[in-house]
């Protein structure tokens, strides 16, 4: 099993006021401790991550049963750009995992900014099925203490996700962001992702 925390940033303006501060930016890489059967990392994609899993690195660690541990590489984080509330009621917006398109819901307007879905690559034992778990919800915080919530995480994965013959699986994910208490701000948080072999 592998797990990691993926940084997320969003800007929401309350009641159509100017957005507070700069738009979302990429989060730094966060290494995650490895276990004998699995491992994870959020380091940016490198050329070595594109090599076949078998024979790509003769010094790569293997588990006690010869199984390659899992690693996760985050290709890009999730971004909703800039949003604005139309009044004092809360609103929401969703990012589609396949296209990265932003769809605003009631009481929310799109103020522009770059929006895109999250992208990740899993590397491990070729042709092995894996289970990928995203949380039911994540609370985001601004520097002033305001909160927003990410929920309804979605991926573009099939019903059974399997690593390919080179030991890799790429997938996209999206979510819905909802304001809380009609408050705006630059919201940030971490999305825990768990991956394990079936």
Strand and helix map with partners:
Blueprint: E1 2-13, E2 31-32, E3 40-41, E4 71-76, E5 79-85, E6 92-95, E7 102-104, E8 108-110, E9 115-116, E10 118-123, E11 129-133, E12 137-141, E13 147-155, E14 161-162, E15 168-179, E16 185-197
Parallel strand pairs: 1-5
Antiparallel strand pairs: 1-16, 2-3, 4-10, 5-8, 5-9, 6-7, 6-15, 10-15, 11-14, 11-16, 12-13, 13-15
3D structure, described in words:
- The protein has 198 residues and is mainly β.
- The chain has one domain.
- It has no helices and 16 strands.
- It has strands at residues 2-13, 31-32, 40-41, 71-76, 79-85, 92-95, 102-104, 108-110, 115-116, 118-123, 129-133, 137-141, 147-155, 161-162, 168-179, 185-197.
- The strands form 3 sheets. Strands 1, 5, 8, 9, 11, 14 and 16 form a 7-stranded mixed sheet that branches. Strands 4, 6, 7, 10, 12, 13 and 15 form a 7-stranded antiparallel sheet that branches. It has a two-stranded antiparallel ribbon with strand order 2-3.
């Amino acid at each position: 099993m592998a797990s990691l925390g993926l940084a997320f940033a969003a800007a929401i303006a309350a009641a159509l006021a100017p957005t507070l501060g700069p738009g979302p930016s990429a989060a730094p890489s966060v290494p995650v401790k490895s276990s004998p059967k699995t491992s994870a990392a959020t380091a940016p994609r490198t050329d070595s991550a594109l090599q076949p899993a078998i024979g790509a690195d003769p010094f790569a660690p293997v588990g006690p049963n010869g199984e390659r541990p899992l690693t996760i590489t985050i290709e890009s984080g999730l971004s909703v750009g800039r949003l604005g509330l139309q009044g004092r009621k809360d609103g929401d917006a969703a990012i589609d995992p396949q296209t990265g398109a932003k769809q605003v819901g009631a009481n929310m307007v799109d103020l522009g900014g770059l929006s895109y879905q999250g992208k990740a690559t899993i590397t491990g034992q070729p042709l092995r099925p894996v289970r990928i778990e995203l949380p039911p919800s994540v609370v985001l915080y601004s520097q002033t203490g305001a909160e927003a919530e990410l929920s309804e995480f979605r991926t573009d994965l099939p019903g059974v996700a399997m690593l390919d013959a080179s030991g890799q699986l790429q997938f996209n994910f999206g979510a819905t962001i909802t304001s809380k208490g009609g408050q705006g701000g630059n919201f940030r948080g971490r999305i825990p992702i768990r991956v394990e072999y079936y």
